[in-house]
Amino acid sequence: MSGIIETAGLSRFYPGDGAPVRAVDGVDMSVAEGESVSVMGPSGCGKSTLLHLVGGLERPTAGTVTIAGQRVDGLSEAAWARLRRRSVGFVFQAFHLVDELSAVENVELPALLVGTSRRAARRRAMELLERLGVADRATHLPDRLSGGQQQRVALARALVNEPVLVLADEPTGNLDSHATGEILRLFAGLREARQTLLLVTHDPRVAASADRLLTMRDGQIVEDTRLDGGLPRQAVLAQIAGWEA
Ligand SMILES: Nc1ncnc2c1ncn2[C@@H]1O[C@H](COP(=O)(O)OP(=O)(O)OP(=O)(O)O)[C@@H](O)[C@H]1O
């Protein structure tokens, strides 16, 4: 059965001083529906670029991306915008919140854009803010929120339309361990709802919470480790600690 994400020979090269920088270099990847997959690897190995290619924020130099059976690497910007609004939730390293809108207005915006009623959008937005522990900040503008609070609002916004695919770049980067725990619980809920999660992280605890761990080096996936019932999580944490050191 084909996965919700399939890539074949996926590559993205950037011009360098001499030879091009091979940010992503011939990645063949298959992620099944409902699976959560974390991507780790040293700084600059191509993790964010891979996520951007899958989410249509960058165009491949070569290779293909298929989401839910549809080739997406050649889609127009407008088609990508529609797909992202409905089916692909993206959590960026920078939060991209709308400065003029309150936290709850930011979260409900994508729901209103796909025609959800005001009342249902507000209910869903508040529910997510509550689950992420930031409901008491719902009426604040982004510049009145801490980095970690903005990050959780951005995550709530990515999830408001219950996308089939969630792409997250360092979703716990600014968070303390309590808030990280809340996000991990939310991610566990995605799995129950058969939503698929592809996330880039430097946090071994976050990585080990996924079903599968992909390790990247120099633009390539060099290890693909199954964590659900495969390797004990402690062994994975030790393995990660080894190459992060
Ligand atoms: N727009 C760009 N132009 C030129 N080079 C780029 C561009 N974006 C990324 N790169 C280069 O591509 C390589 C991979 O970058 P990428 O951001 O994907 O790495 P990463 O693994 O996510 O790093 P980090 O963990 O530090 O966020 C790096 O060498 C980077 O300098």
TrEMBL record:
This is ABC transporter domain-containing protein. PANTHER family: ABC TRANSPORTER RELATED (PTHR24220:SF685), IMPORT ATP-BINDING PROTEIN (PTHR24220). It holds the Pfam family ABC_tran. One of its GO terms (cellular component) is plasma membrane. CDD domains: ABC_MJ0796_LolCDE_FtsE (cd03255). The keyword Transport applies. InterPro entries: AAA+_ATPase, ABC_transporter-like_ATP-bd, ABC_transporter-like_CS, ABC_transpr_LolD-like, MacB-like_ATP-bd, P-loop_NTPase. GO terms for molecular function: ATP binding; ATP hydrolysis activity; transmembrane transporter activity. Signal peptide: none annotated. Residues 5-243 form the ABC transporter domain. It comes from the Bacteria. Keywords: ATP-binding, Nucleotide-binding, Transport.
